[in-house]
């Protein structure tokens, strides 16, 4: 293999480029990214960056060491098509890149509210430019209506409060965060909003946005009208896979891969938020949007890519990346409280409070099924949480192999 | 990764705890009284090490991190730092943490905090 194109220049793409060199690949690397900025860290965008406590420079993921990677950077350039037979990637600037191997790391984009197109003051939060626009709206004052009480919405509510902006959160589901955390713990986390006097209206979806050129309010299905100078839509994300239409790749729910990052096409692997990778524990393909997956998956996927298509599944997995990295993990920070979650919770798992008290917003909860731990949730319990994360990772490794 | 070295001298001496309160595998955080950066002290299999407590990546206490050999893993994003040198082993951390000399006197663990030497 003499040339590799990495499509997507965020954490997963940059990590893939680093992994190629770390694993001894010495051919050409082209890194294609549709944003104009060099790779940057996204998690602070919904936290300190909104409050100007972190600068854009602080977010940079690249270091001086990356200069030695010899990357051919193609920033502010989107990939528009993948011709796998010709091993050719078409670019938005009319150019093309030919490559023997392709790492797909095009990530995901924020889901938008139907009808919001073109109305100013309506935000999503995914990119640095999104964060700059939202920060400007916060500086202009409220009221801010946040659609979706997930992690992005909750973190922005926390930042808005710190910025002195009046904020209301609306959530279509009866209980916020019930999907990732289950109803009981979702309610415990959502309690942080109430603790700080932020109203959360649950169980009533948005019917329409009000206003003309600029948003003026939000009408809910139950008829409630909330005045708004700005709206943040935090309703999850969709994978950026449209450019792969016609490539022959399986794009159901993301770019489908096996547990080692291999797609159905030889010499093409996929990592990060755009990838729906097979998880042995769940016996299905799962697309996660976890920062740690974007950091850990490329090592395994690059090993798969360099090993070539004839490597039978399993034989290349001996060094298949950090086992701990495979355990799903995410964190959030809201109102000065650190929330951490690791593992794979399923509906029906029981929840046991291992220490602390959810009412105090300082506790550690262990999810269990058939007497075995499946996941752990910590609120301001970093040390205890790490201990549990390690226990789960060891158990996970036994299942994954 | 930044390799630039800063000349340091030893400034404040902080008393961390009694040595019996820091058994192998354990760590303790000391908040400096003068408001300067907190320090984390580790007992790695009998050897004592002190580094700045705050991860250079994002605000997290390394004293809450996981200790393995001479390496501590940040509890938030799993950045690992070598306790002997303060160097991170790779992403997400980009900058090293400062290291500080540790002594035990009269049964107390004492940290000799390194401070940068002002350039003339």
TrEMBL record, chain A:
Keywords: FAD, Flavoprotein, Oxidoreductase. Residues 3-297 form the FAD/NAD(P)-binding domain. The keyword RNA-binding does not apply. Its cofactor is FAD. Residues 329-395 form the Reductase C-terminal domain. This is FAD-dependent oxidoreductase. It comes from Streptomyces gossypii.
UniProtKB/TrEMBL annotation, chain B:
SUPFAM superfamilies: ISP domain. Its EC number is 1.14.12.19. It is an enzyme of class 1 (oxidoreductase). Pfam families: Rieske (PF00355). The keyword Transferase does not apply. Gene3D superfamilies: Rieske [2Fe-2S] iron-sulphur domain. Keywords: 2Fe-2S, Dioxygenase, Iron, Iron-sulfur, Metal-binding, Oxidoreductase. The keyword Iron applies. Residues 14-111 form the Rieske domain. GO terms for molecular function: 3-phenylpropionate dioxygenase activity. NCBIfam families: PRK09965.1. This is Bifunctional 3-phenylpropionate/cinnamic acid dioxygenase ferredoxin subunit. It comes from Streptomyces gossypii. The lineage of its organism: Bacteria, Bacillati, Actinomycetota, Actinomycetes, Kitasatosporales.
């Amino acid at each position: 293999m003499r040339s590799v194109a990495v499509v997507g220049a965020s954490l997963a793409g940059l990590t893939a480029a680093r992994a190629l060199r770390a694993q001894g690949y010495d051919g050409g690397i082209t890194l294609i990214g549709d944003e104009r900025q060099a790779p940057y860290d996204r998690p602070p965008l919904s936290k300190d960056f909104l409050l100007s406590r972190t600068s854009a420079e602080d977010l940079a993921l690249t270091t001086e060491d990356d200069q030695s990677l010899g990357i051919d950077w193609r920033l502010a350039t989107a990939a528009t098509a993948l011709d796998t037979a010709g091993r050719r990637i078409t670019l938005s600037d009319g150019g093309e890149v030919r490559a023997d191997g392709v790492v797909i790391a095009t990530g995901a984009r924020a889901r938008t509210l139907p009808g919001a197109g073109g109305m100013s003051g309506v935000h999503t939060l995914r990119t640095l430019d999104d964060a700059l626009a939202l920060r400007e709206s916060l500086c202009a004052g409220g009221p801010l209506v946040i659609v979706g009480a997930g992690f992005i919405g909750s973190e922005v509510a926390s930042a808005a409060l710190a910025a002195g902006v009046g904020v209301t959160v609306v959530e279509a589901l009866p209980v916020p965060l019930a999907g990732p955390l289950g109803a009981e713990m979702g309610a415990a986390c959502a309690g942080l909003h109430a603790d700080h006097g932020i109203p959360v209206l649950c169980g009533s979806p948005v019917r329409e946005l009000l206003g003309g050129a600029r948003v003026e309010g939000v009408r809910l299905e139950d008829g409630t009208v909330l005045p708004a100078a700005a709206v943040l839509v935090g309703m999850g994300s969709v994978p950026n896979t449209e450019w792969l239409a016609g490539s022959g790749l399986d794009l159901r729910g993301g770019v489908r891969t096996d547990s080692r990052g291999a797609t159905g096409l030889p010499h093409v692997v996929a990592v990060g938020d755009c990838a729906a990778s097979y998880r042995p524990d769940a016996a299905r393909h799962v697309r996660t949007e976890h920062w740690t997956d974007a950091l850990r998956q490329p090592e395994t996927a690059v090993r798969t890519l360099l090993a070539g298509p004839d490597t039978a599944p399993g034989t290349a997995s001996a060094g298949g990346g950090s086992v701990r990295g495979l355990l799903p993990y995410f964190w959030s920070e809201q109102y000065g409280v650190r929330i951490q979650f690791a593992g794979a919770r399923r509906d029906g798992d029981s929840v046991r409070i291992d220490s602390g008290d959810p009412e105090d917003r300082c506790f550690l909860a262990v999810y269990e099924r058939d007497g075995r731990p499946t996941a752990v949730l910590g609120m301001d319990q970093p040390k205890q949480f790490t201990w549990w994360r390690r226990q789960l990772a060891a158990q996970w490794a036994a299942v994954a192999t | 990764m930044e390799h630039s070295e800063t000349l340091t001298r030893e400034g404040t001496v902080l008393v961390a705890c009694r040595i019996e309160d820091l058994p192998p595998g354990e760590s303790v955080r000391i908040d400096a009284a003068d408001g300067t950066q907190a320090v984390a002290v580790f007992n790695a299999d009998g050897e004592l090490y002190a580094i700045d407590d705050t991860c250079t990546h994002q605000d997290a206490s390394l004293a809450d991190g996981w200790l393995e050999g001479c390496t501590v893993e940040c509890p938030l994003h799993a950045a690992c730092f070598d306790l002997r040198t303060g160097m991170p082993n790779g992403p997400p951390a980009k900058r090293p943490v400062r290291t500080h000399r540790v002594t035990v006197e009269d049964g107390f663990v004492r940290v000799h905090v390194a401070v940068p030497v002002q350039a003339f």
